[in-house]
Amino acid sequence: MKRLLRLALPGLIAAAALALAAPGLAQVKNHKQLKFPAMRPFTVPQPERTVLPNGMVVLLLEDHELPLIQINAVVRATATQEPADKVGLGAIFGQTLRTGGTRNMTGDQLDDFLEARAATIETSVGDESAGAAVSCLTQDFPEVLKVFAEVMRHPAFADEKIKIAKNQLSSGIARRNDNPQAIMNREFEKLVYGASSPWARTAEYATVEKITRDDLLDFHKRYFVPNRIILGVTGDFDSKTMAGRIREAFGDWDKGGDVKDVAPAVTAQAKPGIYYIQKEDMTQSDIIMGHLGIRRDDPDFFAVEVLNETFGGSFAARLFSNVRSKKGLAYSVRGGVESNFTYPGTFNCWMTTKTETTAAGIDALLVEIDAIVNKPPTAAEVQRAKDSILNSFVFNFDSKAKILRQQINYEYFGFPSDYLARYRQNIDKVTVEDVARVAKKLIHKDQLAILVVGPSKGQDRPLDSFGKVAKVDITIPEPGGGAAPAATADSVAKGKALFAKMVDGLGGPAAVDGLKTLRTVATANLKGPMGEVSLKAVTTTALPDRMRQEIMSPMGEIVMVLAGSEGFSSSARGLEILTDSRRADLLKSLRRQPIYLAQHRNDPELKVQHIGQETVDGTSTEVLLISFLGDDSKLYVDPATGRVLRQAYRGQGPAGPGEVVATYADFRQVNGLTFAFKSSRTNNGEPQDSAVTEEITVNPPVDQAMFVKPETAPASAGQR
Length: 720
Description:
Blueprint: H1 2-21, H2 23-27, E1 48-51, E2 57-62, E3 68-75, H3 89-99, H4 107-116, E4 120-125, E5 130-137, H5 141-153, H6 159-175, H7 180-193, H8 205-209, H9 213-223, E6 229-235, H10 239-250, E7 273-278, E8 284-292, E9 294-295, H11 301-312, H12 318-326, E10 332-340, E11 344-354, H13 358-374, H14 379-393, H15 400-413, H16 419-429, H17 432-442, E12 449-454, E13 469-471, H18 489-506, H19 509-513, E14 517-528, E15 531-542, E16 546-553, E17 556-563, E18 566-571, E19 574-577, H20 580-591, H21 594-599, E20 607-616, E21 619-628, E22 631-637, E23 644-653, E24 656-670, E25 673-683, E26 686-698
Helix pairs in contact: 3-6, 5-10, 11-14, 11-17, 12-13
């Protein structure tokens, strides 16, 4: 009993003390009766500001909580300054500035140096600024600072790292139509700003290919100079000592020239109407609508902040409450008037909804847009929005590192240094009338561009019920370089004769046309960043457009199926619908097979021409250029046998898209048809894979059910 009393006594004392100290808490019956004291004044720590003789602005803010030091540098350089025919230069520059090494250290040596110290150096170029970020332990800072100065002042831009960056950017281009929301945002910006605007244009294969090392060096020389840099340092240091180290690292860097920056003007605005992007690998619709917004320095910015919070910025906002919670139409929904520092943002509302509720979703957003203007937020809504903003305000600046980043931004964009401290006061001053006024001023239902991304079937009401529909083409342009010579009567005649020779080399027209199904068993070796991987693949093809690959890999069994306009894969991870781009890649790989092309020799869509000679592994070949259904490939044909010894085309590989060259060998006959039993491929000159075929079966019986999507994914081989 005494032991129980000893255990309980501290809790009883604490409870009694709480009751005595706060009697009001025990008396309220509703949370609305709770009274809270006014928020204490918010004092923002101010960094120490100095300017080096060469023009570099330095901001220092001590923080001794942890033995860490961080550098954030902002540079007056943007992706909008890249030439229109070299879009992507900023992205490649931002990556290779760090990965490309310095005059004293290769990129790999730099990786090892940082890894050994658990330090990081990151660089980037964005639409409004370029930047660099450094993080390291206090004890390692002197060494890391020297290396960082080398990165900023003397980058090497090694050719092999530029090649990697270009491949990665090209890989992103190849996959950019996989994510519906990424498509929605990208194409909406083109509608609002104009497709050629620096604020909306996108990198293409052709623009990436044109970028050279000299372009990167010129960009660095022009923009990465000390009088265009603001350098902020926060962490565990003494300001006087740190100032000396910064002067030592950057003080002898020559000041740059006077480059006048002219921000690109926003000259285009969205044409009101309905725009549609067809994407069949979706079971839902992504919808966005809007028009031009404001800049961050707009006098109405703070009223807009409150407006956005009431309209679409929280779970209590109108869009979420009405469209998602009450009507049940949206998986996700947001909206508001956005702003940027140097150019206008957009007013936009977006949502994701079932295909079957596409029109209902558009109706719901239009209702809310109309209501926010004609039935503006009430006093209660405005107060709740202001409370939400002010109560969460401190979490945006709860560390000195965050505060310093804000101060760097204000310095960079020319905002007053006490802007952050005055933010709360300006939000608190916003009135109901202010919110109603900016809603009417900045939101215009009659100016909306409405964009829908989704499948063409299953919508609850045709999109043209909202007006004339403009279809948006998101086809990824092929590279512009390396164009084939113009076809002539002679080159076409020679091409047709050589193509006929190829058909004979495959087994002749009768044998080629008699092929309906095919089964191959092959062992392949794939080369990738993690080394070589071996796998076994059983491929069943039912011409013209069905293919099933059963791949036995070290990670288990993977099944990939192409069935005309549909495709899916299954593995231990589950069942996945192939993206449009992946399905298109598989269909292209089937259609560019020589035997498939031979079967379509009389198709008016198939164009052939002879474009020259080239030696392949010691054999002189004639080169055919084949264009069929939007895909081009070169076939290197042995004129003596009609065999295709090599094929070149633009394709996708583990390292990204590139020029794929497939070389064929070990030709054998199977049921009157000639097949290559060995192959190897390179991508942009780098080895990609090789394969040895073990077995080929011509016209095996094929159950069409193998091309039908299962309800659930089959178990992997290891789970059976």
